[in-house]
Design a protein that fits this description.
- Chain A: InterPro entries: NADH_Q_OxRdtase_suD, NDH1_su_D/H.
- The complex is a heterodimer of chains A (373) and B (354).
- With 373 residues, chain A is of the alpha+beta class.
- Chain A is built from 16 helices and eight strands.
- In chain A, strand 7 and strand 8 form a beta hairpin.
- Chain A starts with a helix and ends with a helix.
- Chain B is 69% helix and 0% strand.
- Chain B folds into two domains: 84 residues, no CATH class; 261 residues, no CATH class.
- Chain B is mostly helical.
- In chain B, helix 4 runs antiparallel to helix 5.
- The chains are: A alpha+beta (373), B mainly alpha (354).
- The interface between A and B is medium-sized, with 30 and 28 residues.
Chain lengths: 373, 354
């Protein structure tokens, strides 16, 4: 027997390992059933449901104003954008014209949310590949955004700043000044991210060429957000289905064609620069006017089916409402970006090592309450 | 046993006066062991605190600052907490090996500690195969880690233990070979003699290019030997939870934890002794006061420990296959070439001596 036959005949036993629901790399209560051969992943089965709160069912008993509050608890890192999605759906159904001021403020806060979400992702991503210091750098900058949110609407995470028809109240007088201060600060701090982690040779060797997702697969699995764009799939809702004030600004859709974890990483870092540019274009041009269009105290949508999608920090969030003309939706469905992105995991992580699985999972940027709802 | 400091000499004579010779030497050994045990505990606690403070400086935080002056008592409080905690055992664990494992790790760390010349006359155990003994002893520690991972009957711990075995066996080659490179210059394995040779300049200066290469290889391999980041695959918390000591609690966990820090001290202390002149002061400025040797030895060691902490809090972790590629494809061939280069330099008398 020659050497290759001997190696091929050396069969080690595959074993099963339960990663989660409490595991540092799953960031919440995701449970992965792993089949492993030594260090090599043979199969990944995500097991969901540990934080299922039946939000969609609860929505069927709530008025449209109340539904907005529930969406905070889905993807809590894009709370504002989730609220916006429901509000936009209701406004479109009512064919309500919201003031320009509302659109601009919503867009600015949505982009701030995106930066906050990406900085947190960056910190945690570094931690997943073993660089613990990134976590604190990410949080240093995220805290400043949360401070702005706190001053604007009183909450740091679950904001509830949107109501159907506009905003709950006008922006704080300091808002413009503080956002400008933050942008000036973050422009000096974002390059630090690159010097600390992106340029590191160990990091690049860890990230390049693993978890490769082709463009065809990205489309087939319904990947969206930075995951899709890292594979060269142009899927930015802000570009293709313009909503709010995105028609007033010019920005690039960040596309990478490699499709590996490093491409997804670079897309997110680049998106932070784009978000800053969007905020800079809008922050000096907030139109005067009312912060809320007048709506009925009890909103009743005309009977029919309504769909609206927005781009959260994780990808495409869709809201589908079936109304029978009453004050509650007959059925409400959220198309969450995390769920589709998680379905990729088995496809792209098989064949890698345990360390690759963790790095791949980190660049999918999973938020478990968003997946389970 | 080589004891010549005045205090120890006095104790030695006093003991001989009141006890028969065998009993006196047993009492002496016990006393020395107790001193080392105390040093071990204090050094371990201090290094844990230092690590937390250094980590905090790197991470824009303050670090522990509540217990005692600037948090000085923090690790003592932590140690007290760990002592008072329950020692849990998993039901299907192999109890004998499970309980034995921490002692392998801690005893080997303690044994290695006894070899270092802290100053000219302050050395417990000066044998003529010093370096060889150090390398041999430090390899035994991995048995403890393997046993811990295997006996606790936990798959994550098992993966951690297997990684540890692979990693330590590979990187031991580099540690050994880089030290052998230096031994070519000293011509002796005895630690006290290695230091004496450096009266004409530290070995890293004497051996210039190959010595610097050897030092770099030694620090990389030494970091891997202690299972610290960027080579902390053994306990990679984002992959394996806590790795091989997942199932350990209380003082048994503390043993592993302290041993890691003592091992870091040992790796740095070897580097100090072999590359940076051990207890010798720079340019011989304080040679007239031999006791200051302790200061120089600890100061140099602390600088190297800081270097290792710097690695840990800046670098991401390697993957297991990259770890092995680094050792077998890069460090080992480089090391062998370096060994030949050093042999040539010693043969042609190209070393720099003051």
């Amino acid at each position: 027997m020659d050497a290759t036959t001997i190696i091929n005949n050396l069969k080690s036993e595959e074993y099963f390992i339960n990663m989660g629901p409490q595991h540092p790399a799953t960031h919440g209560v995701l449970r992965l059933l792993l089949t492993i051969d030594g260090e090599i992943i043979k199969k990944v089965e995500p097991d969901l449901g540990y934080i299922h709160r039946s939000i969609e069912k609860i929505c069927e008993h709530d008025s449209y104003q109340q539904i907005v509050h529930l969406t905070d608890r889905m993807d809590y890192l894009s709370a504002h954008i989730n609220n916006e999605a429901v509000c936009l759906t209701v406004e479109n159904a009512l064919q309500l014209e919201v003031p320009d001021r509302v659109k601009v403020i919503r867009t600015i806060i949505a982009e701030l949310t995106r930066i906050a979400s990406h900085t947190l992702w960056w910190g945690v991503m570094g931690m997943d590949v073993g660089a613990l210091t990134t976590y604190f750098y990410g949080f240093r900058d995220r805290e400043l955004i949360n401070d702005i949110f706190e001053e604007t609407c009183g909450a740091r995470l679950t904001m509830n700043y949107n109501v159907p028809g506009g905003l709950m109240f006008d922006i704080h007088p300091n808002f413009v000044k503080r956002v400008k201060e933050f942008i000036a600060h973050f422009k000096t701090k974002l390059p630090e991210y690159d010097t600390l982690l992106t340029g590191n040779i160990i990091f690049q060797k860890r990230m390049k060429g693993i978890g490769v997702l082709t463009k065809e697969d990205a489309i087939a699995f319904g990947a969206s957000g930075p995951v899709g764009r890292g594979s060269g799939y142009s899927c930015d809702v802000r570009k293709h289905h313009i909503y709010s004030a995105y028609d007033k600004v010019t920005f690039n859709e960040v596309l990478k064609t490699e499709g590996d974890t490093f491409a997804r990483y670079q897309v997110r870092i680049q998106e932070m620069w784009e978000s800053m540019s969007i905020i800079e274009q809008l922050i000096d041009n907030i139109p005067e006017g009312s912060y809320k269009a007048t709506t009925d105290a009890v909103i009743k949508l005309p009977a029919g089916e309504y769909y609206q999608k927005v781009e959260t920090a994780r990808g495409e969030l869709g809201v589908f409402i079936i109304s029978t003309g009453t004050k509650n939706p007959y059925r409400l469905k959220f198309r969450s970006p995390g769920f589709s992105n998680l379905s990729l995991l088995n496809h792209i992580a098989v064949g890698g090592k345990i360390g690759d699985l963790v790095a791949t999972m980190a660049t999918l940027d999973l938020v478990i309450p968003d997946i389970d709802r | 046993m080589y004891i010549a400091m005045n205090i120890t000499k006095n104790i030695h004579e006093w003991l001989l006066a009141i006890l028969p010779e065998t009993a006196a030497s047993i009492v002496e050994m016990t006393l020395i062991a107790l001193v080392y045990l105390a040093f071990f505990a204090i050094a371990g606690l201090f290094l844990v605190l230092l690590e937390r403070k250094v980590a905090a400086w790197f991470q824009l935080r303050l670090g522990p600052n509540r217990v005692g002056f600037h948090g000085l008592m923090q690790t003592i409080a932590d140690a007290l907490k760990l002592v008072s905690k329950e020692l849990t055992v998993t039901i299907k664990a192999d109890k004998f090996l499970y309980n034995l494992a921490p002692y392998f790790v801690i005893v080997t760390a303690l044994m290695a500690l006894s070899l270092f010349p802290f100053s000219k006359e302050l050395q417990a155990f000066d044998i003529n195969i010093g370096i060889f003994f150090l390398i041999a002893i430090s390899s035994i520690g991995v048995i403890g880690i393997l046993l811990a991972g295997w006996s606790s009957n936990n798959k994550f711990a098992m993966i951690g233990a297997m990684r540890s075995g692979v990693q330590t066996i590979s990187y031991e080659l580099s540690v050994g070979l880089s030290l052998m490179t230096m031994v070519l210059m000293t011509g002796s394995l005895q630690l006290s003699e290695i230091v004496e040779v450096q009266k004409h300049g530290w070995l890293i200066v004497q051996g210039h290019i190959p010595a610097i290469i050897a030092f770099m290889i030694y620090m990389i391999a030494g970091t891997a030997e202690t299972n610290r980041a960027p080579f902390d695959l053994v306990e990679a918390e984002s992959e394996l939870g806590a790795g091989f000591h997942t199932e350990y609690s209380g003082m048994k966990f503390a043993y592993f934890f302290l041993a890691e820090f003592i091992n870091m001290f040992i790796i740095s202390a070897i580097a100090t002794t072999v590359f940076f002149g051990g207890y010798l002061s720079p340019f011989g400025i304080t040679e007239s006061i031999p006791l200051l040797g302790v200061f120089w030895f600890l100061a140099k060691t602390l600088v190297l420990i800081f270097l290792m902490m710097w690695f840990r809090w800046t670098f991401p972790r390697l993957r297991i296959d990259q770890l092995l590629v680094l050792e077998w494809k890069y460090l080992l061939p480089l090391n062998l070439m370096n060994l030949v280069l050093m042999a040539l330099i010693v043969l042609l008398k190209l070393t720099i001596k003051f």
